[in-house]
Write a structure and sequence with these properties.
The protein has 110 residues and is mostly helical. 56% of the residues lie in helices and 0% in strands.
Length: 110
């Protein structure tokens, strides 16, 4: 069995703690609570995750997700920053032919 490096062990430990924090936040969100417990506040501070009194729980959850991405191996970049698969550069084959037929049908007979 290969021993994990200290960095990998620490990374997994941080991810586990962030998972626990997410679980606690999701429970608050399910119960529609807007008040953070002292334990959740301490955990947010310990991980350097900003929060404001009265902030929506879903906003804090998104911040925790972003923090998790930093510690994930091979984390995919934010999909919103990459072009859509349906953008002009990545159109499915034959799409230009379909558009040409549609244009011709709108122009009518010559």
């Amino acid at each position: 069995m290969i021993a994990a490096s200290p960095e990998a062990t620490e990374r997994r430990s941080i991810l586990r703690r962030l998972d626990d924090l997410l679980e606690a936040l999701e429970q608050l969100n399910l119960h529609e609570s807007s008040r953070l417990t002292d334990r959740i506040r301490q955990s947010l501070v310990a991980h350097g995750i900003p929060f404001e009194d009265g902030a929506e729980i879903r906003v804090i959850i998104e911040r925790v997700w972003r923090k998790q991405e930093i510690h994930m191996v091979g984390a995919r970049p934010d999909r919103r920053k990459t072009p859509s698969r349906r953008s002009a550069a990545h159109r499915p084959p034959g799409h230009d032919v379909i558009e040409s037929i549609i244009r011709q049908s709108h122009q009518g007979p010559d």
